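This section describes the prediction task in plain terms. A model, or a person checking by hand, is given the sequence of a single protein chain and must write out its three-dimensional structure as a string of tokens. No templates, partner chains or ligands are provided. The sample shown here is typical of the held-out split.
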Amino acid sequence: MTEWLAYPLLIFLGLAGGVAVGSGMVALLVILDLIPRLAQLANAFRRSIWFETAITSGAVYWSFADFLDWRLHMPGVVQLVGIGLLDGIFIGMLAAALTEVLNVLPILAKRLHLSRFITALVMAMVCGKLAGSLFDWLIFQR
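The expected answer:
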């Protein structure tokens, strides 16, 4: 592939991937009502803008950190404990939000008049996850 054709293709693929990941993150936050639930649990409805700002700032900061290859200059144990703690908090909040809104799929299927296809919908998601994982493990990781 010639160089003049490769760059626009790479730019398009990068932007498409970014839009897909960003849309998924926004959908996750909106569908799971993560911020309002967090404000409710913290009894801080008036300060929900701080939660929104923290999530947005964190996403922007870590995007820059990834793109610009920023490094944390701390001992390895401190890094491991700090990042592990932050990851654990995020996964715990996400798991709590998922357990509260676990009935999203049946409600969505009912509203879109897809109730009779609920089994096919779940199987499509499972097969998509399986295909993506196999692609990642068998092809992309080589």
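For orientation: The chain has two domains: 3-101, 103-142.
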